[in-house]
Structure formats: C-alpha cells, structure tokens
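Researcher: I'd like a structural prediction for the single chain below. Treat it as a standalone chain; there are no partners to consider.
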Amino acid sequence: MSRWVLCVMCAICIEASAEESDVEYDYRRAPAWPYSLLKSGVSGWVVYDLKAHQDGRVSAPEVLDSSHALFSLSVVNVVPTWRVKPWVVSEQRPAVISLRQEHYFVHPREGNAHVPWLHRSLRHLSCAKFNNRFDDFQQNSSDLEQVEMSVFRHTYSVLARVATYRRLPDEQRFALGDALADAVPEVIQRCRANPELRYKDVLPDQVRMML
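Model: Treating it as a single chain, here is the predicted structure.
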C-alpha cells in the first residue's frame, strides 16, 4: 500500500484492520465543547486511542495529539461512557480491540465540515505556529512518526479532498502523497530556519499548488 493511502487513512483516523471496521457503537455521546473555547470561537481536534471490549465496554482513552488541553479533557471524560455492540471472541476478533480516532471541534462560524476549515487554516498557518505545534508534538507524541503530526495529517486530508474534487488519476494522487511524505524533514527544517514564512510556502511546489 502506498504512503499516500496510509497517511490519508491516518489523517481520518481509521486503521486498516478488519476488527476495527466491524466494531459498532451502541452509545456514543459527542465530547462536550469546553465553554471557554466555544465562547472564544476556538476550533480544534483531538487524536486519541481507546480500547473496545467484547462485553461492550469502552476504556483507556489516550490522547496522542491535540490542539488544546481542554479539548483533550473533554474527549477523555466522555469516552468511558460509550458502549459498543458486544461480539463473540474468535481468532479474528480478540476480546479487546484497540482503536485510533480523531474528533474535530469545528466552531459554528467555521461551518459544519472540518476539511474546508482545515484547508483555510493551512493556508494561513505561519511557520512560527507550525514550530510551536511541532515542539508540542515532539514532547507529547514521541512514539509517532513525524509525518503523523497533526499539520501533515490535515494536509493529507485536504489533498485527498482536492484530488477527488479535481478528479485526479491515481498516479497523480500517489505522487502528491509521496512528495509530501518525502518533504517532511525539509519542511520542518525550513520552518525552523524561517519562522516568518507560512507553512504553505515551504511545501513542495506540486503540493502547495493544491492548497
């Protein structure tokens, strides 16, 4: 499987496992929007792992990446209240299944769809803010690869949407994904050296043109 497909899947937080695709929720209340962030008009996201149990329980929420600590707290508080549909344990379906998911808090003034909001955010993201996010990522998500940083995941999501809208052939989709994956170390280095630039400015030409 190409890096393009793998990273787009990571960006929408769906792992390529048959077990996960078979997990169904009986009860899944949305995380509460922290009042102070809602009042301030702040949007954001949380990437997290959880464990689904064959008896229907959901446990062990673990935040991997987040735009704000209050968003993280909201997710961690609600996940243990969720329930999944019980299943029969087998070789294909163990008693406990680990899931990775992402929740977006998109403020009403930004619209209901998260990808257009991400697209707008990436266009205006400064390298200075990128550097701060990368520092947080290194501190809090050391087990993840650099390409799994939120900014890159979100860029893959936007590229996938634009590629679909423009009806690009698979070869061009793969080339875009590979170009971004290959450029990750250079993007980080160039933003470090040039905090006055925009994140968009240090992307490969073919990727930048899609944003």
